[in-house]
Amino acid sequence: MKTAATGTSVQPHALQPLRLTATHDNLGAEAFGEFQYPTPPLSRPGGAQAELLAEVNKHESDRNLQLVLDEFRNYQQGSLPAGPGARELTAFFASIDAQLDAVSASAPKTQRSDRDVLNLLAKRAKVLHLGPANYCWFTDPSRALCLKLAGTPTADRPLVGMCDSARCPQATHHPGHRPVWAEHADRTKIFIGQLGTTRKTERTRLQADYDRALRVVAEIDAASVTTDEEPS
What DSSP letter does each residue of 154-178 carry, written as one string? Predict the structure, then answer.
């Protein structure tokens, strides 16, 4: 079972806090402090902020490429994605596999490297966003459930905090997400057991949430069973 990498939101101002130094060239400076940047101002175009953002974007791009490659390898081994977007992602992987087979047929002695595969996967990696318990394949903003709920169907990025991956047609679940859903189910079950008999509305809501979590776990388990396993 593959362990999914966890994406973190990096805030440039948090990584490089502004350091201020006082000089004492004159009495005014001694009284009030004269502050100087140890590096070019973060807001200056082409300065430290631009370099940091470029580095962060490069890291995210490399991470996404590796995640897509991992899932493609899982697909080749018969371990499929789950969730509303599973069929679309599986069809995409099948098309990539077909392209690779065609290349192999035309040049059987050619050895395919991961870089060759990544070149075919790069476009899909660019639309990958990591949710806390799912992958979001943001291929079509008009289909994104989070944007529909927020009333911003033309936004260029998903609202991950509003994601309902059990219903969004562009969300998928993978083995690495299973622990999050399983823990959520366990905690919800505990909350239900602690409710009084009069709290019917909250019990109904939590029961639906619990049933959804169990369904997602079951779907992940069913999809991750490789097709080449021998029957017992």
Answer: T-SS--GGG--TTT-TTEEB-GGGH
Nearest 5°: the CA angle 59, 60, 63 is 85
Tokens read off for 111: 């050895």
Please answer whether residues 129 and 156 qualify as being in contact, where contact means their C-beta atoms are separated by less than 8 angstroms: no
Please name the amino acid found at residue 144: A
User: Residue 78 CA to chain centroid, in angstroms?
Assistant: 22
Residue with tokens 């859903």: 181
State how far the Cα of 90 lies from the Cα of 111, in Å rounded to an integer: 24
| pLDDT per residue as tens digits for the range 150-197 | 999 889 999 988 999 999 999 999 999 999 999 999 999 999 999 988
- For 144, the 3-state DSSP assignment is coil
Look at the chain and count its residues.
Answer: 232
33 Rama class: left (phi>0) / alpha (psi -120 to 50) / beta: left
Give the count of beta carbons closer than 10 Å to the beta carbon of residue 188.
Answer: 20
Confidence label for 199 from pLDDT (cuts 50, 70 and 90): very high
pTM (2 decimals)? 0.72
Judged against a pLDDT cut of 90, whether residue 95 lies above it is answered with yes
The first and second tokens of residue 74, run together, are 């899982």
Please tell me which residue, 5 or 197, carries the higher pLDDT value. 197
Produce one character per residue of 10-30: b if its CB has 16 or more CB atoms within 10 Å, e if not.
eeeeeeeeeeeeeeeeeeeee
* CA dist list (Å): 46 to 36, 51, 59: 19, 7, 19
Q: What is the DSSP letter of 226?
A: -
